[in-house]
Amino acid sequence: MSDTIRFLLGDQPVEIADCDPNLTVLEWLRGAGGRCGTKEGCAEGDCGACTVVLAEPDSAGGLAYRSVNSCIQFVGTLDGTQLLTVEDLKQGSTLHPVQQAMVDQHASQCGFCTPGFVMSLFKLYRDYDGPLPPSRETLDRALGGNLCRCTGYRSILEAAGRMFQSPRPDAFDAKRDATSAALAKLARKSGLAYRDRFFAPASVAELQNLLGKYPAARILSGGTDLGLEVTKAHRSLETIIYLGRVAELATVSRSASHLTVGAAATWTNAARELVAIWPGLDEIMARFAGPPIRNAGTVGGNIANASPIGDGPPIFLALDAEIELLGPAGTRRLKLADFFLDYRKTARAPGEIVAGLHVPLPKPGTLFAAYKVSKRLDDDISAVCGVLALEIANGKIVQARAAFGGMAAIPKRAPACEAVLLGQVWSLETAKATGAALAKDFAPIDDMRASAAYRLKVAANLLQRFWFETATQTDVRAVHYA
Predict the structure, then answer these.
(1) 424: left (phi over 0), alpha (psi -120 to 50) or beta
(2) What residue spans of 148-306 are helical by DSSP H?
(3) Phi, psi of 172 (to 5 degrees)
(4) What is the mean pLDDT of the chain?
(5) Which of 92, 105, 286, 427 is least buried, going by the fewest C-beta atoms within 10 A?
(6) d(C-alpha 359, C-alpha 368), whole Å
(7) What string of DSSP letters covers 299-312?
(8) How far is the C-alpha of 438 from the C-alpha of 418, rounded, in Å?
């Protein structure tokens, strides 16, 4: 193991041996890194002003790009990657097509958010291979994690469309082989141990050894929640074990009967497979924070966090998932419904981490939908998240799963609601009766996002909406979710 953090800043190799493991990428950039184009707007991953792009080798021998919020990423997570900021896009005296389009469309007003928008658009420019010009929905989704306080979205969206009029490929394509070779020189055969406080194991065996040695270590994956303990709560994390280099934990695979989602799989990667199997997840996945958060945040982190208002747990509860836990002595499985014990308390033992989720594939005749109700359409926390799955055979409901977030101290299924559904014909009357049973399952609270009465009413209405959307459907792949 090594005691330095090595990465590329643009094309230049960087080696860091003396920074606090709690230092964020944004703080390093604006300090020792000498890159002040990247801005701090919120320090919690909401506004996108700090967006940067990371490039890493992919399985096809090329480079995979992802935009992330630098304000909540720790410097240790850069090891082995290429970090690109807005300063890297200009090639000599020539602006990158993204930058030129922003200039041509007068898309910068106060300019504070502009670097973040440019980097999110750069990520889209690098990866988009669909029909031109991209649809408005494509552009909206790509910019879902960036906020403009000057309300300059119209000109930014016009620039987003215009940037594809420039010749492609760009200068980054020309440098791809050189960048790949430089990153190959930085690749490690074993994990990173930085100042005996930040550990990035490269295998499950290394991880298990660290879990046994440091059972009280904080587990870092995407950092989209843990980072806020440093930036907002001003805590110092003593020992950190980073999962981002354990390839076995980042896989998403499908067998004949199950989908297995590794704990370190990002929501961006997991969503592709989830939506392919359950199309009803498309909208909630698009509204699962913004792209920079989904590009960093992981499925396992979202589950282990055990937030009662997280959108991930209700999804996997309704899909009847099992959770796999990994500790120094090995692994164990349990039903996800048995994992959440109380507010922010789980069945995870000291020294254990969430290793993955095992999700049964849907049976024929399964109806499925996921709903997110929040004050703001994009980049907002749910007041109520409801996910519903019904298995129907011979015209009757033979299996029912209704899971909700925002309704209790933990994300949980609704047993009284499910009991009303079993054995019934799926009808509007059944949906109404089921909604009435929710009061037996939940006693929600009043808070800044919604009142208890509103939550119960909305949850009941979602069951009726589910009926209206699925009344003529008999197969999960045919369910329309709008």
Answers:
(1) beta
(2) 153-162, 171-174, 176-186, 204-213, 226-231, 267-277, 282-286, 291-296, 299-305
(3) -70, -30
(4) 94
(5) 92
(6) 14
(7) HHHHHHHT-TT-SH
(8) 9
The Cα 361–Cα 465 span in angstroms is 24
Mean pLDDT of 204-225: 97
Distance separating alpha carbons of residues 328 and 334, to the nearest angstrom: 17
- Encoded amino acid at 4, one letter: T
Residue 228 burial by CB count (10 A; 0-12/13-18/19+): exposed, middle or buried?
middle
Domains of the chain are 1-188 (3.10.20.30), 250-360 (3.30.465.10), 366-478 (3.30.390.50)
Measuring CA to CA, which residue among 299, 313, 306 is closest to residue 356? 299
Tell me 332's DSSP state. E
Q: Quote the tokens at residue 220.
A: 């870092």
Q: Of 351, 304, 346, 298, nearest to 326 (Cα)?
A: 351
Distances, alpha carbon 447 to alpha carbons 305, 440, 460, in Å:
20, 20, 19
> Residue 477: pLDDT above 50?
no
Mean pLDDT, to the nearest integer, of 104-126?
96
- Which pair of structure tokens corresponds to residue 68? 């992330």
- Which DSSP symbol is given to 178? H
* Tokens 């850069």 -> residue: 78
Q: Supply 137's token pair.
A: 């929905």
Please say whether the beta carbons of 386 and 370 come within 8 A: yes
The one-letter amino acid at 167: P
Residue 481 has pLDDT above 70, yes or no: no
Q: What angle, rounded to 10 degrees, do the helices at 114-127 and 97-104 form?
A: 130
Task: Judge residue 395's burial from the number of C-beta atoms within 10 Å of its C-beta, 0-12 exposed, 13-18 middle, 19 or more buried.
Answer: exposed
Measuring CA to CA, how many Å separate 211 from each of 49, 56, 113, 217, 392? 35, 26, 40, 8, 44
Other C-beta atoms closer than 10 Å to the C-beta of 106 total 11
Question: Is the bond leading into 133 cis (omega within 30 degrees of zero)?
Answer: yes
In terms of Cβ atoms closer than 10 Å to its own Cβ (0-12, 13-18, 19+), residue 18 is exposed
Q: Assign 478 a pLDDT band (cuts: 50, 70, 90).
A: very low
Residue 92's pLDDT is 87
275 three-state secondary structure: helix
Neighbouring CB atoms inside 10 A of 358's CB total 18
Q: Does the pLDDT value for residue 428 go beyond 70?
A: yes
DSSP of 191-210, one letter per residue?
-EEETTTEEE-SSHHHHHHH
Q: Please state the pTM of the whole predicted model.
A: 0.94
296 SS3 class: helix
Q: What are phi and psi of 403, to 5 degrees?
A: -120, 145
